[in-house]
Amino acid sequence: MTEEEILNTLNHSNDGYYCSFVELGHVYSYLIDCRLNVFCANDGRWAIAIERLGYNPRAGAIILDINYYGNCLNNLESYNGRPTSYYSIYPIDADSFNKTIDGESLRPDAKFWLVRGQRISLSHNKQEYVDAGIELKEYEPDEISAEEIGRLVVPQYQDLFRATDNELYKSIPADLKKILVVDEWFHKDFQLQFSPIMTDEHLRQTYEFNKNLTGLAEMTFESFAQSYRCQAILKDDWNRDNWENNRPSSYETWRLIAKVIVTKDPDQYKPILQPNTHWTNWPDSGSM
Q1: Largest separation between any pair of C-alpha atoms in the chain
Q2: Predicted structure pTM score
Q3: Is the dihedral of CA 114, 116, 121, 124 positive or negative?
Q4: Residue 168 lies in a domain
Q5: Are residues 137 and 213 in the same domain?
Q6: What is the mean pLDDT of the chain?
């Protein structure tokens, strides 16, 4: 096991299907909280479990996703016959959550959430949100959204919303030792765009099949092919820029984490870059 091998695993965590590098700014989920856990063994096995807690309006729930990376993972979840790199947990009792949320907003009579069997009081006092640094969107007067509630209560009850050791070890061998826990770090989202290679014949078949079903009938095949090729070039440029600037090995955080794993010394994690994992630094999360 070397630092390069660990970084290479993180760099290539996106498989174009259901495995990917953790995305704090995911546009379908409002970021609320996160945590980084590092595990290793004396025989070179290692694992990283990154917790991301967020409110997903489409799922109608606050979800804790554990994102797994390592060289000894087991019991990973699967989807459509392919492995996924994350495992989802719902810390809030679904009935208590649904009874307090109307659409995506707090009901006027909402009083509590049941989180891992414990009642958590919910606040309608706007000043409490202001004091906590939460600027209410208030699309309607006095409206408080689900993610805003989460951002208020989670810091008060963090242990209830974070993964238990049993949950963390779901896909990590039990004999690995947890050697480092980081509650905030400097992070860059790293997602690559994958698309199939289209030959001219494939493009022709796609054009012929779709031209009468969509607006392609107003476009010649030559224009369609040129547009597709231009988009492919732009996508390649986007991927190239993302790889150069955002892959895990390109910045301090993950190079230090790799050093911690290889040396089994948590004191090797002495970052200089300021952490940016607080939800206020990810305003585009949940934006779609």
Answers
A1: 64
A2: 0.87
A3: negative
A4: yes
A5: no
A6: 93
